[in-house]
C-alpha cells in the first residue's frame, strides 16, 4: 500500500529504524496479552520525535494511538489500522523539593519508589497500579481512596497540531476517570506531582499494606486490564456482578475472576473476542437484574479480525 510505504519512510527519517515495528502483535504490548497487529508501532526516543510523529500522521491523515504500558487497554483480534506510538522510552524521573516530574512512560511503581526514596507522601495509593504516569494522569487513575487529582500539579502535553503546552491542575478538568487530556486528545509528555514531606518508614508501611490488600483481593497472577468496569453511580461494579452470580463465568479462556468479580481475566489463551463477549454478557446480566448500565473502564481499540488485512511494504 503506497501510503503506508511512504509513511514508513517518513517515520524512519525522524526515529531510528530499531524503534519501528511493522505488523506488530499488540498482545506483546498490553497487560491482557491479547490483540492483533498494529500496522506500525513506534517507540520514540524523546519528545521531539513524538512531536514529529504526530505531525507526520496528521500530514498523511493517518490515525495514531498513544500507549504507555498498555495496562488499561483491550485491542481487538483484527489489530489497529494506523500508527501506535508507545512512550515507554520517555521514562526519566526528577525530584526537586516536594515535586516529582516524571516523563509519561514512567511506571507508577517507579514514580512511587522515587517518592519513597525522597520521603515524599501522597502517591502511595498508586504503587500497585500497573500503568504509566501519563495514562494515570489522563484518566485520573485512583485506588484505595486516592486519585491523581489529589497530587497532580501540572502536565506537559502535545496538542493535536504537535505543539507543546503546559496545563495546570485547575485546567485539567479532572473528574472520575476523565480529564482534559481525554476530552481534547492531548498527548501527555510529562507529569508534575506536588507531594508532602513524610516519614519513610510510614510511607513504606502504607505501600506494603496496600500491596498485601491487592495481592489478597485481586487476581494478580492472571493477565488482565485491572478493573474492567467503571463504578456506576451509587453502586460498586464488583458487587453488582457478584450478586448477578457471575463469578467464574467464562467465555473461552476469558473469565470473571472468582477472586474479584470486578476483574475479567485471561486465564491462559483467551482471544480479544472472548473477552469482549464476556464483557457484553456481564453488562447484559447486570442490566437485566439490577437495571444498571456498566460502562467499561478499559479502553477498547481496533478492528475485528475479518476486516484487518493490510500489509505495509518497507
TrEMBL record:
Name of the protein: UDP-N-acetylenolpyruvoylglucosamine reductase
Active site: 177, 227 (proton donor), 297
UniProt-listed Enzyme Commission number(s): 1.3.1.98
One GO term (biological process): regulation of cell shape
Catalytic activity entry: UDP-N-acetyl-alpha-D-muramate + NADP(+) = UDP-N-acetyl-3-O-(1-carboxyvinyl)-alpha-D-glucosamine + NADPH + H(+)
Domain FAD-binding PCMH-type: 33-198
SUPFAM superfamilies: FAD-binding/transporter-associated domain-like, Uridine diphospho-N-Acetylenolpyruvylglucosamine reductase, MurB, C-terminal domain
One Pfam match: MurB_C
GO cellular component: cytosol
Keywords annotated in UniProt: Cell cycle, Cell division, Cell shape, Cell wall biogenesis/degradation, Cytoplasm, FAD, Flavoprotein, NADP, Oxidoreductase, Peptidoglycan synthesis
InterPro entries assigned: FAD-bd_PCMH, FAD-bd_PCMH-like_sf, FAD-bd_PCMH_sub1, FAD-bd_PCMH_sub2, MurB, MurB_C, MurB_C_sf, Oxid_FAD_bind_N
Amino acid at each position: 500500500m503506497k501510503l503506508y510505504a511512504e509513511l514508513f519512510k517518513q517515520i524512519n527519517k525522524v526515529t531510528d529504524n530499531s524503534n519501528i515495528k511493522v505488523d506488530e502483535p499488540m498482545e506483546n504490548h498490553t497487560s491482557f496479552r491479547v490483540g492483533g497487529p498494529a500496522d506500525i508501532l513506534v517507540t520514540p526516543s524523546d519528545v521531539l520525535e513524538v512531536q514529529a510523529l504526530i505531525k507526520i500522521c496528521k500530514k498523511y491523515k493517518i490515525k495514531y494511538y498513544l500507549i504507555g504500558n498498555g495496562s488499561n487497554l483491550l485491542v481487538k483480534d483484527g489489530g489497529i489500522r494506523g500508527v501506535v506510538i508507545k512512550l515507554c522510552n520517555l521514562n526519566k524521573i526528577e525530584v526537586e523539593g516536594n515535586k516529582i516530574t516524571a516523563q509519561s512512560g514512567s511506571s507508577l511503581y517507579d514514580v512511587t519508589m522515587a517518592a519513597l526514596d525522597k520521603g515524599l507522601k501522597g502517591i502511595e495509593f498508586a504503587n500497585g497500579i500497573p500503568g504509566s504516569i501519563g495514562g494515570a494522569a489522563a484518566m485520573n487513575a485512583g485506588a484505595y481512596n486516592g486519585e491523581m487529582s489529589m497530587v497532580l500539579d501540572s502536565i506537559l502535553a502535545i496538542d493535536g497540531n504537535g505543539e507543546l503546552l503546559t496545563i495546570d491542575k485547575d485546567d485539567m478538568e479532572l473528574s472520575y476517570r476523565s480529564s482534559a487530556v481525554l476530552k481534547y486528545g492531548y498527548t501527555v509528555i510529562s507529569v508534575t506531582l506536588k507531594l508532602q514531606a513524610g516519614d519513610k518508614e510510614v510511607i513504606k508501611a502504607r505501600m506494603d499494606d496496600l500491596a498485601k490488600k491487592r495481592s489478597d483481593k485481586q487476581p494478580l497472577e492472571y493477565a488482565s486490564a485491572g478493573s474492567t468496569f467503571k463504578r456506576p453511580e451509587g453502586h460498586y461494579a464488583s458487587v453488582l456482578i457478584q450478586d448477578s452470580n457471575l463469578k467464574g463465568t467464562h467465555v473461552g479462556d476469558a473469565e470473571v475472576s472468582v477472586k474479584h468479580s470486578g476483574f475479567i481475566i485471561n486465564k491462559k489463551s483467551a482471544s480479544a473476542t472472548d473477552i469482549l463477549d464476556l464483557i457484553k454478557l456481564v453488562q447484559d446480566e447486570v442490566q437485566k437484574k439490577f437495571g444498571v448500565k456498566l460502562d467499561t473502564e478499559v479502553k477498547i481499540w481496533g478492528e475485528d479480525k475479518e476486516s484487518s488485512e493490510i500489509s505495509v511494504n518497507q
